[in-house]
Here is the input.
Amino acid sequence: MKFSLYIAKRYAFSKSKSKAINVITAIASVGIVVSAMAMFIVLSVFSGLKQYSLSFVDDLDPDLKVFTPKGKSFVVKDRQILDLEESGYFKGVAKVVEDRLLFTFKDKQAVSTIKGVDSDFTNVNDFDEKVEYGNWLEPDTDEAVVGVGMSYLLSMGLFDTENVFEAVALKPGKGTIENPEEAFIKKHLWPTGVYVLGNDDLDNKYVFVDIDNARELLNIPVNEVTNLEFALADGVSEGKAIQKINEVLGDQYIVKNKTQLNDGLYRMLNMENLVVYLIFVLVVIMALFTLVGAMIMIILEKQPNIKTLNQIGVPVRDLRKIFLFQGLIICLVGSVIGLVLGAIVVSLQIAFGFISIREGLAYPVEFSWVNILLVFASIAVLGLLASLISSSRVNASYLKL
Here is the structure.
């Protein structure tokens, strides 16, 4: 093997007598470098976009969320909340009431999700830190915090004493509605804060109010919630926390983590990454076709030298390894150069943000060693297959030509 590797290195880093072979080999080598570089950059971009998309999930969703499989709300006792808080498994346990409602301001209307929260909500979620204008709502008040998208949509400012920001919900009941005005539950709210997440959909999604106001609008009893939200304490495993929730509340409820709450988003992002990876694998395969052609031409050119080596006792198996190693050397060196160039481009984008989605927001990229290993391993495996195909030309019939 050492002999075959030594000859392979000589062949790989020396010029051929034929200019055509040199050109084809150079094209194949450049193709591998560019393929490795492009694959790493694109995977880094999609990793950055995935991280950017999931950052909104971290802003919106708690570590764990409890729902009822039947109906809209369920009863939760103060003793149960106290048991969960004193268990040491959670940094915060928040009672939440939420549903879609109509909101009006002046002559404009918009549909959004009202989210009634208690005083412990800020221990579960840092939404209060996302308030760019005004302040987070005070408990047991009619204050409301809206998204910047909702604020723009309704042309609504803060602390407006002349115009009414109103939440409107249908009254439950049966029979014919005689007076339309009596068919709705209306609640005047006092907008005191505007949160900004930087995503149009999410900045329209929620109107935060005190939980009692949400219960009043949605006609939900005082001791009921639509869900419970939890923030895990440091060092607590998700499995133990879920087990504790089931012990206290019972196992009839649904408990979901952030991934399960956004399984559609995770599946979509993972599928996008897989499709992009497969596309660039095809690009690498196309580049390796050129390498196979160049290797076969090199094998034909080196035929007299190979015959001589065979005549002095080098077996065909070792002769075949010479070209196997040569192809691998070209692939591995090309992939390393491509990865170094790709890493430089990605690092420059992270540091300086030359390419932007919009003003003030650089295109997100993520430098990941996983992507480096994935690109290197992919090219190494495909290069090994290409080298095996080309080196198989060294056989008994080849030596007899």
